[in-house]
Amino acid sequence: MPPHTSAVEKAEIVAMVEHAGMDFDEVARKIGQHPTTVGRPRKLTESDANFAVMEINRGGPVETTQLQCNFFPGVSVDTVRRRLKDQGLENFKQHAVLFLKKEHIKQHREWGEDLLFWTLDNWLAVIYSDASKFDVFGSDGRRRVWRKCGQALKPKNTIKKVAHGGGQVMVWGCITRWGVGHLRRIETTLTAAGYAKILSEDLLGTLRDYDINPHGIYFQCDKDKKQWTKLVATLLENHGIDSLPWPASSPDMNIIENLWDHLDHKVHSRNPPPKNRNQLWQFLQEEWEKIDQNYIAQLYESIPTRVQTLVENKGGNTGY
């Protein structure tokens, strides 16, 4: 600011810029001065800002503090954050997606193309199932990343994870268009015989609970080589249950994965939260029975769009 700007005027200008969020042109018009009279040269030049964006785009530091520490130690983190916003970037939570091999992507694309013609009525005939692990203390994998809107699934903006993450209570469950099915705790390594027992007691039990004709449904499950044996295939065949072909490493197509996240959130939002494995299992059962049928209906309604998105993404991650 020039020497003739009074202390009061300086304070007003600072308040308008830092607290009211006005730019220098707006402030200049407000106080009746030329724009060059207001403000001071940027601590981060246009060249600096372009470098910061380039560093982010090539997979460099994603945390503002790390970017500031590595390249701009002479300015504050807030200054770096403001300049990134000036460049059109916004700070978002980093998405966690499953790492996909080339063969997975190819299988996903082919699967999506084969079932693209299915209507919602077709998908409503599918019973989804899965096993999942839950941690007594929950998990917080939140990370944030600077990116532009619409770029959530670009590889540099996502967190890679592997299938079957750690946990302390493992369960198997299934869902139908009519509501949740059986939820079963798994306390030992799940063998083929153990899996067949689950299907015999809990899948068939779910069909009985809802009076579902097994000849009119498809059963979705991940065909894990250790579990999917002739014993399991024969059990389903003997009860007239068709198995839905399912590609490996495709949790974003399985709506029960969303239900697991929903269940985990409900359990760990309880006050007080679970303190041990047995209490976690108790809470899981209680919250499972409370799951709203409308929420399940929304998940089923999303399936045609999921498949469409999968095909559009050529078998890559879909964001579901």
From TrEMBL:
Origin: domain of life: Eukaryota
Molecular function terms from GO: nucleic acid binding
Protein name (record): Tc1-like transposase DDE domain-containing protein
The species this protein was found in: Ceratobasidium theobromae
